[in-house]
Structure prediction request, 941 residues.
Amino acid sequence: MGKNKIGIKKILIYLILSIGAVIVLFPFYWMILTSVKDYGQYNAEYIPKLFTAHPTLQNYVDAFTTVSLGRYCVNTFVFTAITTILMIVVTTPAAFAFSRMKFKGRNLVFGLYLSLMMIPNELVVITNYVTITNMGMRNTFSGLILPSVTSVFYIYLLKENFETVPENLYRAAKVDGTSDFKYLTRVLVPICRPTVVTIIILKIIECWNLYVWPRLITDDSKYFLVSNGIQEIRENGFGRENIPAMMAAVAAISVPLLLLFLYFRKMIMEGVIRGGTKG
Amino acid sequence: MKKRIKAADVRGWLFLLPSLLFLAAFFIYPMVDVLVYSFEEQFNFASQTYTGVGFYNFNYVLHDPYFVQALKNTFILVIITVPVSTCIAILIARCISSIKKLREFYQTIYFLPYVTNTLALGLVFMILFKKTAYSDGMINLLINAFGGQSVDFIDGPYWAKILVMSIYTIWVVLPFKILILTSAMASVNEDYYKAAKIDGTSSARIFFKITLPMISPMIFYLVITGFIGAFKAYSDEVALFGTDLNGAGMNTLVGYIYDMLYGDSGGYPSYASAAALILFTIIFTITCINLTVSSKKAVY
Amino acid sequence: MKIVLKNLTKVFEGRRKKDPDVTAVNNFNFEIPDGKLVALLGPSGCGKSTTLNLISGLEEPTSGQIFFDDEDVTNVPPENRGIGLVFQNYALYPHLTVLQNIIFPLQNLKGEERLSMDEMKRKAKDVAKLVQIEDLMDRRPKELSGGQQQRVAIARALIKNPRVLLLDEPLSNLDARLRLRTREEIRRIQRETGITTVFVTHDQEEAMSIADELILMENGVINQIGAPQSVYDEPANLFVAQFLGNPKINVLRGFVQNEKLIIRDEVFMEMKNTPDKDLFVAIRPEGFVIDENGTLTCNVRNIETTGRDTSIVATHDASLEETIRVIISSDEARGIEKGPIKFSYKENKMFLFELSGERILL
Prediction:
């Protein structure tokens, strides 16, 4: 009797989870499905079919030839790579300075950094737009990258992590004659690798999805990122009605990130938990 | 001795220098600047001139029908999506926590939307909800199947558009909340559950009297960040309704700011700054209210 | 090489303006002879680790000087002092193997001092042999036991042939059995290498057993310096007497009246030429003799036999502690029962102190 009740409960739980999973996954499925449907066939279906017997890759070809989707992907890749590298170069020394070095004014500056975490991006975007425009950096990679580099939150996250490394390790390194820079690169960063990788991944996701800033700062499609590309496709690509090609484009830019996620699944989820709960 | 202390100071600042430069240029200076802009009346971007200093920009923005519409949309979005998404997330997280088999599988699936380009998936949602000449769209067919009438969710009545917007927003914010809540539930000490089971506590009671209070700090955290996130909604709406959000009557506060800055009505940084400060004030106030409420109510 | 501290003082400023400054090291003057193992001993917070950090150069003194032989190293940064340092929690780099940990200091050398990888490995092998960890070279720290980690830390400290080896509570994280073995090991390594070694500990037994010389500290002040046995036998003040010895020395309140030292209501001993005053009488546990004509009457509460020795737990109204502990051989203890008992004392195990703690020499 009791066992039966537990069994029904279990079934109910799996039922809820499965229905939810279908809702979550359905848009993805729809995206892939539509992207391999033949254009004519798609338009002929008043009631869309949930599968297709004749998948075609023609839509992908269209997506990459009609719109310079390949170029947007390369742009986004370059933008993401440079921004992430710069972010690490800027963030780790700052986190190290806050966590281990003793110098005048450290606590004051750290307080300032912390208070900056409360400022929403929307507030500073206005001036940054004006600054970048005045510096003639619209439609350049520098204009895209520079304001996107720093994140106080990542400095904070790294600093917290650096501080969990016993201070005696630093002292030992000092006695051994290790320079601060070498200690940071050879000891601290390797020890804190999970956190460093976490912020790299979070930054990559952030960069790949960035929409507002590139939209403000670029109107030359040579410098569009994927988000702008999608927007362009939505507004006027493919004569607006070629939905399979549109879905092919959407799938093409979603897939790299999904693959990255599936590969680093554990690390990303742990990283988001860590980042989420610390903030 | 004195000399070495100074060297240490210099070294410390040297390590900070790169981040300081970036922050000063792209955070600190803009913050001050946005204040200045917001009080410079009728600032002209081309000639860099303004006619006076005062509250005119705020006045203008607050009486702009587009702004009022954006404010209304944003508030509706916040009021619908924050509670609904939090409740759904608690339900799903609870289900995930109570199973062993396929647990990672479900966790992974529910996390997928987090790593997708929200603009891209927004397009998919648009297609699913849109009514065109060729097809009523997947969702409308479902509604028809249950005997309902087709509605154009994208270009149709206001309530329908709000509905799509809310559904998509919830779909987008759920993964983060589910993940955080699942991990919070997993971190509750097993001994509490064991003790409660020995006392013969029902599982519903365990959930409401032990699990929920134990993870309440995390729930409050999610509510606060949820509020902030929903107030900053913008790109999801662009994906669903296009860049002319004012035309669609679906603009948000952030969208209004960007439109003022650049875009169809563009080129008014003063109005944009005033609107941004109003947004900041709203977010700040609501966060403060949330914090005071949570510090009074939270178990810890 | 000998180490000389001259008027060394370290003051830590209060964290905020209103917090008081803390003098961790107050005007230290002492000399550590070449090739000796010296223990800095004291309760936690007495400034012994600060002293070590000053010697290593990790902290800078507020005033005073430090000499290695005749060289003033006060302003020399730690890496140029030629020291090896071992920490309580070993401070091994968790992401590096044992070998990589050991040669890490060598890899910091630049220019002409730089060795080839083969030379580094050869040197690492030598020190590894000395501390007996040759077969662990490819493991990572977390795969090692506490004792093994400590050996790696010592090997890393020794690889640059330091002039001075500094050990900061090196045994505290080990369990009792390992602590004993590692203690002997450190003593052996120090003898074999002949490096001047400073050993910081709060454990008096450890310090007594390992050191050539003790430096006993309290609240940033040196209480006494000397060979372990002589410090034990002739404590300079009440703090030293209480700090050394296990079980602790027994302290009783007494007073001098008409040239007689009285404890409670018994005349304990004669004290010629002494003015009337209050004082402390301290007797080591092994300093008691059961004696019907004894001058100290206690009340036996409990008798604990450990085989060779018997420890008597007794009470006395004048005792500072709740109980008095007496250790005598089990033969002598035969027939003792609970209740009153009379003791006399061994003269070299009994000390008198002023209420200020200063020793009264007879």
Remarks:
- The longest helix of chain A spans residues 2-35.
- The domain at 69-240 of chain A is CATH 1.10.3720.10 (MetI-like fold).
